Amino acid sequence: MPRIPQTDLSHLASEIKRWGAELGFQQVGITDADIHSHAEKLKAWLAKGFHGDMAYMREREGLRENPSELVPETARVISFRMDYFPDEADTAERLKQPEQAYVSRYALGRDYHKLIRKRLSTIAERLREAGGEHCRAFVDSAPVLERGFAEKAGLGWIGKNSMVINPKAGSWFFLGEIYTDLPLPIDPPQEAFHCGSCTACLDDCPTDAIVAPFQVDARRCISYLTIELHGAIPEDLRPLMGNRIFGCDDCQLVCPWNKFSEATPEVDFSPRHQLDQTDLLTLFAWTEKDFDLKTQGSPIRRIGYARWLRNIAVALGNAPHNRDIILALEEKQGTAGELVDEHIQWALNQQRARASASPVS
């Protein structure tokens, strides 16, 4: 690659940040490609088995540690932040309404992967036009230690709940990266760790998945259980899931830094199909055709209809006794496969036990 004068590289770095702002990113930072310290933490996490059934985490570990194996001659990683906090009623209140469905805030609107990747690809193409031979965009779809790079690039610090926290924006944001061979000037990392003695995220985790500061056992995490896990949800964890049917936000809802979060200007991140205000029975009544239609362009689509029903069945089992819930569970039984049936039967047992204890519905 021809050598580009440092003055031109400095100007290009400024342009990248301007382009990012124009394309809806709230912050852009540039760092080098050395991610060794974060890779070592990943190795320790994997050694404890905290990744559960996510075998791809171990299989592609080497690519995470060595960016140049993913994109040749990677010299810099450009990290981007895009806020997604919805400008809607307080969805946290739904956790106090057990017959209502709780969907993680990031999944209420359009799938962020496509939206962000398209915009990052635009910037990557401009970098190629500026002389970069190897420039590639990533959005949570490749072996990239994105939180480590975000911290190194100055976008925030990794908190005790393993989320990146920005002192001016909290943690309600998506991350994306561009790997490039252009030796751009780098930005300083976050000056300090600002969680202090706070343990709100550890104390509030419904399943005690944050087993120690900075250590999340995915096998207990509701986001893992409802999204990543393909099989049966462990019975001892089901009662702790409440009405959370896709993901979990609890460790962010209690984080003091999220008082600085601002509503996203992205219309595509606004709730679709009233997922922020729908009851469990309505969603459980969706047919597979309904599911395919209403999750088109949504991150929810990836779990498929069977796991969608599995998750809702657990939530219905956790709801107060209701004859309509029992009827809905019985009607769905035998229609969606063994995995769903197992969770329906568990939910029925919970509902019937509750009815025996308190016969008035």
TrEMBL record:
Family the UniProt entry places it in: Belongs to the QueG family.
UniProt remark on cofactor binding: Binds 2 [4Fe-4S] clusters per monomer.
Domain 4Fe-4S ferredoxin-type residue range list: 182-215
GO molecular function: 4 iron, 4 sulfur cluster binding; cobalamin binding; epoxyqueuosine reductase activity; metal ion binding
Chief subcellular location: cytoplasm
InterPro entries for this protein: 4Fe4S_Fe-S-bd (IPR017896), 4Fe4S_Fe_S_CS (IPR017900), QueG (IPR004453), QueG_DUF1730 (IPR013542)
Entry keywords, A to Z: 4Fe-4S, Cobalamin, Cobalt, Cytoplasm, Iron, Iron-sulfur, Metal-binding, Oxidoreductase, Queuosine biosynthesis, tRNA processing
Chain sites annotated for binding [4Fe-4S] cluster 1: 195, 198, 201, 255
HAMAP family listed in its UniProt record: QueG (MF_00916)
Protein localization: Cytoplasm
Enzyme class: oxidoreductase
GO CC terms: cytoplasm
Subunit field text: Monomer.
N-terminal signal peptide: none
Active-site residues from the entry: 140
PANTHER family the record matches: EPOXYQUEUOSINE REDUCTASE
Enzyme Commission (EC) number: 1.17.99.6
Cofactors that this protein relies on: cob(II)alamin; [4Fe-4S] cluster
Gene this protein is translated from: queG
Residue positions binding cob(II)alamin: 64, 140, 161, 164, 175, 223, 248-249
High-level lineage: Bacteria, Pseudomonadati, Pseudomonadota, Gammaproteobacteria, Litorivivens
An individual GO BP term: tRNA queuosine(34) biosynthetic process
Pathway: tRNA modification; tRNA-queuosine biosynthesis
Protein name: Epoxyqueuosine reductase
